[in-house]
């Protein structure tokens, strides 16, 4: 099934909110104009909270596109949940990654990409596109990264 990118993103946010609820957290999806924050999650008594950015792909693989802003937007109370959708009826994969890990990974990966020449030998042009990959599945189902 092919979904429009907006619907893929919305589906990911609701899937993450559902998972958080099942795990005993209070999860609130933010309005679309909340910069870099898709969900606010708190413990049941509301004494601790965390912000979550959700990135979703519909390919089922462990690669997500980001933008340059991810390199500077991090804190101990902010995490990414990367969602890899699968076929309808199948549970997606969730990768829970601290925002500082994402920032450092994206920055170093991009610098490495820029340092290499293109196949034709010319220099690469800088881009605002970044990516996060977890091919080794280090952060797969690491819900304990959400410390509430």
Assembly category: single chain
Separate helix tally: 2
Strand content: 25-35%
Distance between the termini: 36 Å
Q: Describe the main β-sheet briefly.
A: 5 strands, mixed
- What sort of overall outline do the alpha carbons produce when their principal axes are compared? globular
Level of helix content?
Answer: 10-25%
| Elements, N to C (H/E) | HEEEEEEHE
Radius of gyration over alpha carbons?
16 Å
The average pLDDT value, as a whole number, equals: 93
Structural class: alpha+beta
Query: Could you tell me the number of beta strands?
Result: 7
Question: How would you describe what is shown here?
Answer:
By secondary structure, the chain is α+β, with helices and mostly antiparallel strands. Helices cover 24% and strands 27% of the residues. The protein has two helices and seven strands; from the N terminus they run H-E-E-E-E-E-E-H-E. It has helices spanning 5-22, 99-115, and strands at 26-29, 39-42, 49-57, 63-67, 78-84, 93-98, 129-133. The strands form two sheets. The protein has a five-stranded mixed β-sheet. The chain is globular. The model has no long low-confidence stretch (mean pLDDT 93).
Secondary-structure map:
Elements: H1 5-22, E1 26-29, E2 39-42, E3 49-57, E4 63-67, E5 78-84, E6 93-98, H2 99-115, E7 129-133
Parallel strand pairs: 3-5
Antiparallel strand pairs: 1-2, 2-3, 4-7, 5-6
Q: Descriptors for this entry?
A:
148 residues, alpha+beta, five-stranded mixed β-sheet, two-stranded antiparallel ribbon, 27% strand, globular
């Amino acid at each position: 099934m092919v979904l429009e990118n907006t619907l893929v993103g919305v589906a990911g946010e609701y899937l993450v909110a559902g998972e958080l609820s099942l795990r005993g957290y209070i999860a609130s999806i933010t309005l679309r104009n909340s910069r870099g924050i898709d969900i606010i999650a708190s413990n049941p008594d509301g004494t601790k909270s965390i912000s979550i950015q959700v990135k979703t792909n519909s390919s089922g693989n462990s690669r997500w596109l980001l933008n340059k802003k991810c390199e500077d937007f991090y804190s101990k109370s902010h995490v990414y949940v990367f969602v890899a959708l699968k076929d309808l009826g199948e549970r997606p994969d969730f990768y829970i990654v601290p925002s500082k890990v994402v920032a450092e990974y994206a920055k170093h990966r991009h610098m490495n990409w820029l340092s290499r020449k293109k196949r034709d030998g010319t220099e690469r042009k800088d881009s605002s596109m970044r990516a996060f990959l977890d091919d080794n599945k280090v952060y797969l189902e690491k819900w304990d990264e959400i410390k509430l």
